[in-house]
């Protein structure tokens, strides 16, 4: 008798745990308008950016994203861009060391020159400005960053860029960040 | 694509209209230059120029050294005119307006179209009003400039402020320093910034006190973490340096960027004068608050008068990179530069610095400061360099005043501008010159280009270059010379003894002038020649005469208007045997910057045409020599505007 009871209890506990964790897991990675039953602030804001999915994925998947602070969301986004840009810059510099192709070398060198100020000054200043509530300056920095990324992108013909998706993704991130900051600017 | 004018048509006849060539008083406003303070690891250059307070009317005096420039031939004409006292003199500063005009100079009927054309597209100039110092910090280049917020003529000088990511696209910011304390109430003049190891920025600037005494004041950013350095704070116990005994209270200004010595002290130098000898005083400091004056001057040159805007910096003898202002050692030479208040000309000399006693001597005493080489042989003053630690280069700013009337400036609503920043390198090929060259970022303005190869220009002809609009250009040109067979002339004797620039491009000689006509109209009623003239050519074997090459700009026919300054500027330029003759021109409406032989000799000019404007401005090649053909190869870029405008802060910041 006792064995049966404890076994049952164990089974119940196990399945309860299983259901609970499944629910937790599914709620964490749930699509925006599903298990939470309605848009949260992140969704609302991301809908006002040109790349909703990207915006939402990033903000929802980052545990540090504040639920109700658009400025915090902008900060997360800028940090994300900064990380991506740093990564891409390292990638460019690696490629530069390895490539024998002179034309490619020039293109990559140009891109490195574009990315360096973005990583070193422009994005950190955008971040600081956001933190201090200087949304105009932050907006200006973000558009500066965009210009640099664009200049690098233009050096390559469409499909042949060794930077492939990276630049493309970053452009989108920048557009998203830019849109969020504009929302902040307009109060 | 290229047409030819009639071979026999006389080219560039001497001007047929009256040109006033009175004593030219080129008084310029103070320049503000802040020199960047150097940190050992970082160099922040800040230049601002202090303008001179002088009570005397300035007389421009042209030197007639053989080696020296032939700039601004001044001919006292016989006309009876009263000397008009230029603005600024009554207030004890150097005259700022052009006093070549007299009461009898006919004034021209300038139309608004003519005046608005003059505004440049890609040179730094104030939104409005008057300007006459650079720094790189946290991703931004800063320019501080002497600015009159109220008027397009000199006065009320404060520190204007602008920033740029690339030295080309500038954004105006609010004024950085205003004249609101007794120690700068009569002028917040030039100064320099130094970046300290802990990241702090320190600024020294000359203030003109309520008693019009020149003192040095300390200021620093209100918030050094602000990338735009918007707000500045003045040290409460200013001034930190006052004129020492033996130095006149109005002969003491323009502190440089500091450099660090092996004794762990910073040094700063200022220009002054004692008994007409221009000199450079040195102060040592550890905290930028307390200073000791050295016993010795850094250097002194008799007869040169007051030294304004002194600049002192090292150059690498292998000529490939710029150096931090504190750099020293073997393979390093030091450049000492001064703006001579008496003549409104910038001179430099290359020499050796002895840090043990903070003295400097020139490599060649005949080419000492104030008597030797000029940075720019045209309209150019109050220049200053800074070390750009971002790109490891030394960058030179120069201030270009207007050469028209104050009345025109007031109508235009602005006056004066800065050159395109130039990199400065030691010319290791000659060992005697500096090389200046527009910063590479100017290439970001390039739109389309046209290329011409081996265009033949026969003696006495003009060849149009069909490039479309010709007011915003970056021109690279190379010239080859073909001796005409009919003459076997090895030297210039039979063609008169035209040396150097002559009286302009209309004066013909065997081997020059030839070059480019810029801001010229089809009828050639207005034109500005930029040209070479050689003393001889060909030297087949026996002749021992060496060739001297002169590089010149002739403004005498740049405009029909009589109330603008129109001079011939130029100098000899060293040309090595393996070098082709080459020039680079930056044309931007009313300013032309001309560089010969990679920047060995540079001439900046202002032109104010009445007809060769907008779509009527054209570009030509010309050859006014008698004994040679010219073959010119050119690459010409159209340059975009830099859209210099206020910083887009948006709403409330």
UniProtKB/TrEMBL annotation, chain A:
<comment type="similarity">
    <text>Belongs to the PMEI family.</text>
</comment>
<feature type="signal peptide">
    <location>
        <begin position="1"/>
        <end position="21"/>
    </location>
</feature>
<dbReference type="InterPro" id="IPR052421">
    <property type="entry name" value="PCW_Enzyme_Inhibitor"/>
</dbReference>
<feature type="domain" description="Pectinesterase inhibitor">
    <location>
        <begin position="37"/>
        <end position="180"/>
    </location>
</feature>
<dbReference type="InterPro" id="IPR035513">
    <property type="entry name" value="Invertase/methylesterase_inhib"/>
</dbReference>
<dbReference type="InterPro" id="IPR006501">
    <property type="entry name" value="Pectinesterase_inhib_dom"/>
</dbReference>
<protein>
    <recommendedName>
        <fullName>Pectinesterase inhibitor domain-containing protein</fullName>
    </recommendedName>
</protein>
<dbReference type="InterPro" id="IPR034087">
    <property type="entry name" value="C/VIF1"/>
</dbReference>
<dbReference type="Pfam" id="PF04043">
    <property type="entry name" value="PMEI"/>
</dbReference>
<keyword id="KW-1015">Disulfide bond</keyword>
<keyword id="KW-0732">Signal</keyword>
Automatic annotation (TrEMBL), chain B:
<keyword id="KW-0926">Vacuole</keyword>
<keyword id="KW-0865">Zymogen</keyword>
<dbReference type="Pfam" id="PF08244">
    <property type="entry name" value="Glyco_hydro_32C"/>
</dbReference>
<dbReference type="Pfam" id="PF00251">
    <property type="entry name" value="Glyco_hydro_32N"/>
</dbReference>
<keyword id="KW-0378">Hydrolase</keyword>
<dbReference type="Pfam" id="PF11837">
    <property type="entry name" value="INV_N"/>
</dbReference>
<keyword id="KW-0812">Transmembrane</keyword>
<comment type="pathway">
    <text>Glycan biosynthesis; sucrose metabolism.</text>
</comment>
<feature type="domain" description="Beta-fructofuranosidase N-terminal">
    <location>
        <begin position="23"/>
        <end position="115"/>
    </location>
</feature>
<dbReference type="InterPro" id="IPR013148">
    <property type="entry name" value="Glyco_hydro_32_N"/>
</dbReference>
<dbReference type="InterPro" id="IPR023296">
    <property type="entry name" value="Glyco_hydro_beta-prop_sf"/>
</dbReference>
<dbReference type="InterPro" id="IPR050551">
    <property type="entry name" value="Fructan_Metab_Enzymes"/>
</dbReference>
<keyword id="KW-1133">Transmembrane helix</keyword>
<feature type="transmembrane region" description="Helical">
    <location>
        <begin position="41"/>
        <end position="61"/>
    </location>
</feature>
<comment type="similarity">
    <text>Belongs to the glycosyl hydrolase 32 family.</text>
</comment>
<feature type="domain" description="Glycosyl hydrolase family 32 N-terminal">
    <location>
        <begin position="123"/>
        <end position="438"/>
    </location>
</feature>
<feature type="domain" description="Glycosyl hydrolase family 32 C-terminal">
    <location>
        <begin position="441"/>
        <end position="638"/>
    </location>
</feature>
<dbReference type="InterPro" id="IPR013189">
    <property type="entry name" value="Glyco_hydro_32_C"/>
</dbReference>
<dbReference type="InterPro" id="IPR013320">
    <property type="entry name" value="ConA-like_dom_sf"/>
</dbReference>
<keyword id="KW-0326">Glycosidase</keyword>
<dbReference type="GO" id="GO:0004564">
    <property type="term" value="F:beta-fructofuranosidase activity"/>
</dbReference>
<dbReference type="InterPro" id="IPR001362">
    <property type="entry name" value="Glyco_hydro_32"/>
</dbReference>
